[in-house]
Here is the input.
Amino acid sequence: MKLPLTLLTLAALCGTSAAADWLQFRGPNASAVSTEAQAPGPKVAIDWKAELPGRGLSSPVVVGDKVFVTCSSGPDQSNLHVFCFSATDGKKVWERVMKATGRTMSHNKTSVAAPTPCSDGERIFAIYSSNDLFAFDLAGNLLWLRGLTFDYANASNSLGMSSSPVVVDGTLVVQAENDSESIAVGIDTATGKNRWKKERPKAANWTSAVVYKGAVALQSSKGLTGVNPRSGAVEWDYTDGAATIPSSAVTQDAIYVPSNGVTALVPEKGAVSQLWRASGLKPGTGSPLVLGDSIYVLNGAGVLVKAALSNGDEAWKLRLKGPFSGSPVAAGKYIYIVSERGDFQVVDTTAKEGEVVHSVELKDTLLCTPAISNGAVYVRSDKALWKLK
Here is the structure.
């Protein structure tokens, strides 16, 4: 089977040594597309299930044969957990529990463990809505920690924070964007010290950064800003507004931004050009996904829309069993998505009108975005972590 150009590009960008790893929210380069040649399933089933002691919307991340996931427990969600499980059998390898130093208030639907942790392949970086940030090695040894509330006392909101961090060029980029002390910070992954800090638009924002040609693209209600990961210097700026929940999708050639529908942009030093805009493509809470020569958007009504990557023209619409909070992910020709009611669905994107070819009822509330690694899909709820294979 010939791999779509997008998959080949991502494989080249991510390298072969960590091709099976899913190191951050939405996986390789936050593309939501696995770089593996072999897609899971489609007839996946539960391989194992591991119990969790607390709440969480964060996605699992996978490094080698280890699966990492965060959660928060206690009456006020002040117990912050990082778990490491064996990808083979789901047995707990280690657990670390810390106390929150920042604000633990959040909307009933979310939790303090909303941001997805990330890894550089050697370390795990976990941040929580309380703005507590921890760095561990893969064996669970604490390397450094930051209570960002001590540095930025007003960087919070009453609904909770959920922007996930990214690692690029030895810098951990963390967003704490809100209507008060709104910031993005670039942190040295080795020391935990700031490389830079930028003031951000004063508005609640739950999107996560993506990386385009070495620049970190920070999304907000104002638009999208590309900054240098080492210095924080602005390299380009798009100012026509963007969504504050679904994040952008990236390929080697463009960024597809939830802005006035979906807008395809080509940023360059000091300038941003627009390829097309499709106002009818309206992502709900899930981020757009680029697979091959198509872009897929899951709207607020639970309808998956396929459109041409070249111009945004719609090809088909497929109603799924919703509602949804998480984003879709993909491998090969399949898209994987789990509903809030625990309906895990596999969509064959090559079918004439799209087709759900398999589903698994997990019988729980799931608000996460799945992770893909080594031919398996991982999802989590407030109670458990599953491996589907």
In short: The helical segments are 5-14, 148-151. The first strand starts at residue 46 and ends at 51.
